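Kindly review this protein for my students:
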Amino acid sequence: MKVSLSFVIAAFSTLSLIASQNVPKCSRTPVRKEARTLSDGEWNTLLSTASQMHTLGWFMWFSFLHVRFFDSIHFVGMFFPWHRRFIREFEGIAQYYNPNFVLHYWDATIDASDPRSSPILTTGRMGGNGGPNGCVNSGFQSGWVITLPGMSQTCLSRDFSGMSTYDSPEIITSVIQSSQSYGDFRPSIEMGIHAQVHNSIGGAMGQKYSPSDFIFFLHHSNIDRIWWQFQRARSENLWSYNSANNEGSISLNDQIPVFTSPVGDVMVVGYGSNCYSYDNAPANNRRDDTTTDDPSDIAAVVASPEMNLATGVSASTIDKYFPLLAADDTNPNSVAMPNFVSTKAANYAKSNKGNASKYSKKPVPAGTISDSIVSTANTIAPGYTAPVNVSASSKPQLKIPPPLPLEYILMCKYDVDQYNKMYANNVQLINQLNADGYVSPYV
C-alpha cells in the first residue's frame, strides 16, 4: 500500500517559500464555487452586481485593458499571472459595490460532451446564443451595448455555431500529470480548454474584447482554478514559472503589465492580493437534463471499474498519460475529475453493474470520483495488464473536440505547429481511452 505524504511536504514547502517572498496571508478568503452549485440567492448577488458594474462602465474598462495588452499576455508565460491578477481586480471592485460578491467559476469540462445544454447557458443564468443578428437577447446581459475606443458601438454578441465538444476532465488530468513544468502546462491549457470556450461562445468572447461578456470572468476563474490545482499537484509546481519554446527568459520578478507588481506576488492563492479560495468537490445534490451530482448517481459511477482511471484503462495508458497515478504517492490535486457526471454516464453505470465482475481490480469506495481514483491508485498497482472481456465499441465513448479555426489561432498568436502537436496528442489520448474500454463519467 502506498502512503500519501504529498500534502504534508507541499504544505511545509508552501509556507517556507511564501515567507521568503514576504507576501502577507489574507485574513479573509471567500470561496469561489462551481456556478451550477450556487443557490438562487448567490446567483442573484452575482448577476445583480455584474449588472451594476456594467451600468457604471467597468466592463468596458476591463475590455479596453484586455485589448490594449492582448499580445503581451497571450501565448507567453505572463498568461496565467496576468489573468489571475486581472480577474481578482474585477472581483475586488465588485466587492466594493457588494461585499458579498464572489467571482465563482464555470467548469466547462463538466459540460464537455454537450456544452450547448449546459445549465450555465440558460436564460435564468448567463443567457444563451445570440439572436439572428448575433445580439444576446436572453439572460441578464440581454441588450448590452459595447462601446470601446476605435470601435463602432455594437451589441454584446454570441455565436454558438462553432460550439461542439470540449476537452474532458480526463484531458485536464493528463495535462496536470504529464507536464514537467509551467512551460509545459501553460500552452496545453491556454490552447486547449481556455481557447475552446472562447471560440465556441463566439461573438465578443471570440474577440480581443472578450471581457465585455461576463462569461469571460466565470471562465477565467475556472482557468485560474486549474492553474492553482496544477501548482499544488507537486511541490515543485508551486513556484514553477519558466518559458516555453516560443519566448525568452522569464522570471518571478517580471512586472505584471498594468498592475506593476511582480509575478511572484500572485503565485499563491490566499496570499497578497489573491484573497479568495476554491471549493473542494462541490455538490448540490441536483439532477438536470444533462448533469447530476445526486449521491446515488455518483455512487454508481464510483463503484464502476470501467469508469475509474485507476482500474478502467491499461497500465500502458497510465504510464504514458497519467504517470502520477503510478507514482509512489498520488497527490489528490493531480486528479481533476469533478464530482458532477453526465446523466448518460450515471444511467450507464446503473444499467451495467454486471461489467464489474469482468475487471480484476476494483475501485476503492469514496465520496467523490477524484478521491476514489486517488485512493485506488494509492492502494493497488493501477491499470489492467490483461484484456477485459467487454466490447469497447459497445460502450459510450469520449468525443474528439474539433480543432480551433486558423483565424482564432492566428489572432492569439499561437504557434500553429505547437498547437497541431498538442491537438494530435489529445486525439491520441481520447482514442486510447476509448480503445481501452474506459467509460468517462462525463460522456
